[in-house]
Design goal:
mainly alpha; 4% strand; 9 helices
Length: 202
């Protein structure tokens, strides 16, 4: 099996796993399994942001939320501590699931470990693969999900939103920050003044 064939098989396995998502989302005039749509948005953003990415990075991006619905927030205690436990559990679950699917596709060794490190969110700011995944995650959130998130939380005041945007911004590399404000992504129009206020001087 060639590298390209192995890569395509892994992508197909990740997509098949995400196609099982019982949660649906409307986009482009059709109903999608939520995590399948998310994974394709991640890959599309990667192609725009870092078209030079190698196979391991492309696979990590595609597997970022693989089968996320199987590890529900409601399975963990309420409150900040429960939230952090859920996030830690998610990273481990996604990394292990991605590793299993890649092994099924015929990968072993370095590629599997790189994907698991990135999807597991290990060594942010130090591991290039993890930072690339974080950059793409944040760009996708801003373009596709930030407005919906805002609409779900009308109780958040401006100070809360400035804090959310700044925390997101801080996790991004300088390259991703520049990409976000260069017109390369579609900013949610109602939030543009707030975004610019949050990141000005950053």
């Amino acid at each position: 099996m060639s590298d390209q064939e192995r890569f395509e098989k892994a992508i197909a396995l990740i997509d098949a796993a995400n196609s099982e998502d019982p949660n649906r989302e409307q986009a482009e005039g059709k109903s999608w399994p939520k995590e399948l749509l998310y994974s394709q948005r991640m890959s599309d953003m990667l192609q725009r942001y870092a078209p030079e990415a190698d196979h391991a990075q492309r696979l990590a991006i595609r597997a970022q939320h693989v089968q996320r619905w199987k590890s529900a927030r409601s399975d963990y205690p309420e409150g900040r501590q429960g939230y952090l436990q859920w996030r830690t559990g998610l990273y481990k679950f996604h990394a292990e699931t991605a590793g299993r699917l890649l092994a099924e596709a015929g990968y072993d060794g370095d590629v599997v470990e790189r994907v698991k490190q990135a999807v597991g969110k290990r060594a942010l700011k130090v591991n290039q693969d993890t930072q690339l995944l974080e950059d793409v995650t944040d760009l996708v959130f801003i373009e596709h999900y930030m407005l919906a998130f805002a609409q779900k939380h009308p109780e958040y005041d401006e100070a809360k939103w400035l804090d959310i945007v700044r925390k997101t911004w801080k996790k991004m590399s300088q390259r991703a920050q520049q990409f976000a404000v260069s017109g390369s992504i579609t900013l949610p129009e109602p939030l543009v003044p707030l975004i610019h206020k949050a990141v000005s001087g950053s």
